Automatic annotation (TrEMBL):
It holds the Pfam family SNF. One of its GO terms (cellular component) is brush border membrane. This is Transporter. PROSITE patterns: NA_NEUROTRAN_SYMP_1, NA_NEUROTRAN_SYMP_2, NA_NEUROTRAN_SYMP_3. It is found in: Membrane. InterPro entries: Na/ntran_symport, SNS_sf. Its main location: membrane. The keyword Transport applies. It comes from Cyprinus carpio carpio.
Length: 496
């Protein structure tokens, strides 16, 4: 397949370094630029970013709710035809231009700066709620040093005549999650106030992340030896132990069939299984250490996805070191993430999870592939990859980058947008006053929530054309002003 379509892109050669200049920079900056100690650190960092908390609390839920094993067929197809080609493309173009998300797209074409800004906004929004899950993990971790575990039995009521009614009507693990941890309100409109224990855990989560990112890859590069490997060791231990328990093949399906949410999978299903194990506090500590490591590895990449573009945009003082940018991002994120520490925090987190990383990511992915293939130029890109690794990409990469992957993303976006707009949006609520309690109740969002949904999914996506339009207007105005200035100078010279 030979598609040589390339859109006009004047000035590209002046905006990007040549291969000879790259070789020279590599020698000159070898001692100054932060580097990984070895290839293992780099690979573990990539694995840690790609495999995170979502693989434990979100993916199994999505898999079960969309057909179980059948869900894996389209998932694997899209992984091969969409996920891996896009990952390869982003790594390659970033390495070639040696810049962050904003700098890369500015170099390709100044009108594409919005793609980098949109990526930064998505990383910021996703990082806010992801680190909230880490805060919940820390809360459970702190409570794991008790025997028996606090979610293994119902607490006694105030009159000491029996157990708390809400716990008796549900289960100890449900009660500890929805009441003792989240103190969940029955509707999203009722904030329920701040839960101080979650605020403290949230502060610890952002502080720990800031400390780990403080010295860049000098710290995170060593941290990934633990954060990216320990989870797999613990998961292997849990797998072996789980297979030896009686009825191990039925327990997970039983819980999922009862309608447990994505976060509930980690904090209800797994915690219930832990209570059935001998020396359950030990297993609980290991499990939440595993979740913490998974989340921390992912957050390293999320924070970098905000800090580096901020530096490229030059909207803050240039004298600020990277550590100051990291601290600012963590501080602002913590302040805004307070919304998740309310009694309605779980509903807000589900809202962010459903919309912050859906439509914007599809549009960003489409723009990236089209920009590299048809604005930067696929032939130039092939030569760049040959320069970096010694050979050009094979036929598979050519077909996916040029045609298959952009087409798939476009079709998914259109289908998702049409189905989302045409249906009533609902959320799952824990309401002890409902007739079907303890079954989670499906409720409709209030009308004002649609404004929040637009901010989460619409604003990052609209940044791309908005920035391009701003650049176009500014360039036109500057051109007219420059033309007017030149004409005035010529007149003055002529008069003199």
């Amino acid at each position: 397949m030979k598609l040589n379509l390339k859109l006009p892109n004047p000035g590209l050669d002046e905006r990007i370094p040549s291969h000879a200049e790259l070789e020279k920079l590599e020698v000159e900056e070898a001692g100054e630029r932060p580097q990984w100690d070895n290839k293992a650190q780099y690979m573990l960092t990539c694995v840690g970013f790609c495999v995170g908390l979502g693989n434990v609390w979100r993916f199994p839920y999505l898999c079960q709710s969309h057909g179980g094993g059948a869900f894996m067929i389209p998932f694997l197809i899209l992984l091969v035809l969409e996920g891996i080609p896009l990952l390869h493309l982003e790594f390659a173009i970033g390495q070639r231009l040696r810049k962050g998300s904003v700098g890369v797209w500015r170099s390709i074409n100044p009108y594409l700066v919005g793609v980098g800004i949109a990526s930064m906004l998505v990383s910021f929004l996703v990082g806010m709620y992801y680190n909230t899950i880490i805060a919940w993990v820390l809360w459970y971790f702190f409570n794991s040093f008790q025997d028996p575990l606090p979610w293994s039995q119902c607490p006694v009521n105030e009159n000491r005549t029996g157990f708390v009614s809400e716990c008796e009507r549900s289960s100890p693990v449900d009660y500890f999650w929805y009441r003792k941890t989240l103190n969940t309100t029955p509707v999203i409109e009722d904030s329920g106030g701040l839960q101080w224990w979650i605020v403290l855990c949230l502060f610890c989560a952002w502080t720990l992340l800031w400390v780990c990112c403080l010295r860049g890859i000098e710290t995170t590069g060593k941290a990934v030896y633990v954060t990216s490997t320990l989870p797999y060791l613990v998961l292997t231990i849990f797998l072996i132990r789980g297979l030896t328990l009686k009825g191990s093949t039925c327990d997970m399906q039983t819980f999922l069939s009862q309608g447990v949410e994505g976060t509930g999978l980690a904090f209800i299903v797994f915690t219930e299984a832990i209570t059935k194990m001998p020396v359950s506090p030990l297993w609980s500590v290991l499990f939440f250490i595993m979740l913490f490591c998974l989340g921390l590895s992912t957050m390293f990449g999320s924070v970098e996805g905000v800090v580096v573009p901020l530096q490229d945009l030059n909207i803050l003082p240039k004298r600020w070191p990277k550590e100051a940018y990291t601290g600012l991002v963590c501080f602002v994120s913590f302040g805004l993430a307070i919304i998740f520490a309310q009694g309605s925090g779980d509903y807000w987190l589900a809202l962010f999870d459903g919309f912050a990383g859906s439509i914007p990511l599809l549009i960003i992915a489409f723009c990236e592939m089209m920009a590299v293939s048809y604005i930067y130029g696929i032939d130039r890109f092939n030569d760049d990859i040959k320069f970096m690794i010694g050979h050009k990409p094979n036929f598979f990469w050519q077909v996916t980058w040029r045609l298959v992957s952009p087409l798939i993303v476009l079709l998914i976006f259109l289908f998702y947008f049409i189905t989302t707009v045409s249906k009533e949006l609902t959320y799952i609520a824990w309401d002890p006053q409902s007739e079907n309690f303890p079954t989670l109740e499906t409720k409709s969002y209030p009308d004002w929530i649609y404004g929040i949904i637009f901010i989460l999914s619409g604003v990052p996506a609209l940044v791309i054309p908005a920035v391009a339009l701003y650049k176009l207007i500014r360039n036109r105005c500057c051109a007219k002003e420059e033309k007017h200035t030149t004409k005035t100078k010529n007149v003055n010279i002529k008069n003199e």
